[in-house]
Task: inverse folding
C-alpha cells in the first residue's frame, strides 16, 4: 500500500503515541519499513527532542487515512487468524466496517450466518433492526463504526466462549485504540462484560455510567434480544436517545 509522503511525520508520531499507550511496536515497524523511512533506533537523538504529542485525536484527513490504512492492515491479519477454533468454521472473518473517524463505536457479540457469508457485521435480521434504530437517532451506518467481540462465527450462533474472546480481544483493543471513539456502545452482555470487566447482568450494567480506558461506555440490549423480546424495546429506545444526546452535546 502506498502512503502519501506528506503524512509520514504525523503518522510516525501517532504510532509512537500508540506505542507509549501499550500498543505493540508491530505496526510501527511495519509502517516504517513500508514507508521507507529510517527506523527510530538508527536516528541521532536531537538536542531538543520533539514535544510529547498530545493524546487528543487529530481527525485531519491525513490522520483518518492513516487510521484506515492501519485498520486495513489489521484486517488482513484477522483474515488468516487461526488462534482459536472458530476459524475452522468460518466462511469469512468479520472485521468491522464504518467511519474510522467516527464518534461512536458499536460492539456486538460475533458474526451470525449472514455476517459469515458476507464478511460484514450486523447485516442479518439483528443488523437490519440496528440500522433502523440508528436512523431513528439520525445516524447512518456510514457515520459509525460497527464491530464485534469475536471476528469469526461461533457455531450455531452460540455465545463466544471465554477463550475465544481472549484470543480475539487483541484485535478489538487495537481497533478501539486506533478509532478512539468519543463513546462506545456495547450491544449486549458479552461486549459489556468484557469492556467493563464485570460479570454483572446486562439489566444492571445498562443502568449505570461506565468507561473503558477513559472512553464512556453505554450499555444496551443486543438487537437480537429485542427481536426475541419486543418488551425490551422501550428500555433500549431510552438508551439510544441517551446516546443521541451525548453525541449532540
Ligand atoms: N450479532 C452480533 O453480535 N454481531 C453481528 O455482526 C450480527 C449479529
Result:
Amino acid at each position: 500500500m502506498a502512503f502519501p509522503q506528506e503524512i509520514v511525520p504525523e503518522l510516525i508520531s501517532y504510532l509512537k503515541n500508540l506505542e507509549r499507550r501499550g500498543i505493540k511496536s508491530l505496526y510501527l515497524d511495519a509502517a516504517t519499513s513500508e514507508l521507507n523511512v529510517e527506523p527510530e533506533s538508527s536516528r541521532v537523538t536531537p538536542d531538543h527532542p520533539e514535544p510529547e504529542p498530545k493524546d487528543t485525536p487529530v481527525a485531519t484527513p491525513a490522520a483518518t487515512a492513516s487510521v484506515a490504512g492501519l485498520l486495513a492492515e489489521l484486517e488482513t491479519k484477522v483474515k488468516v487468524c487461526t488462534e482459536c477454533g472458530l476459524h475452522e468454521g468460518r466462511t469469512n472473518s468479520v472485521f468491522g466496517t464504518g467511519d474510522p473517524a467516527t464518534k461512536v463505536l458499536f460492539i456486538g457479540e460475533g458474526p451470525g450466518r449472514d455476517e459469515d457469508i458476507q464478511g460484514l457485521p450486523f447485516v442479518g435480521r439483528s443488523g437490519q433492526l440496528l440500522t433502523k434504530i440508528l436512523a431513528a437517532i439520525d445516524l447512518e451506518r456510514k457515520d459509525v463504526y460497527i464491530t464485534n467481540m469475536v471476528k469469526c462465527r461461533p457455531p450455531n450462533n452460540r455465545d463466544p466462549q471465554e477463550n475465544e474472546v481472549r484470543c480475539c480481544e487483541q484485535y478489538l483493543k487495537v481497533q478501539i485504540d486506533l478509532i478512539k471513539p468519543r463513546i462506545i456502545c456495547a450491544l449486549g452482555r458479552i461486549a459489556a462484560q468484557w469492556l467493563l470487566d464485570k460479570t454483572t447482568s446486562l439489566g444492571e450494567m445498562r443502568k449505570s455510567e461506565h468507561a473503558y480506558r477513559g472512553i464512556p461506555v453505554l450499555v444496551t440490549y443486543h438487537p437480537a434480544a429485542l427481536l426475541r423480546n419486543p418488551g425490551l424495546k422501550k428500555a433500549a429506545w431510552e438508551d439510544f436517545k441517551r446516546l443521541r444526546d451525548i453525541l449532540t452535546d
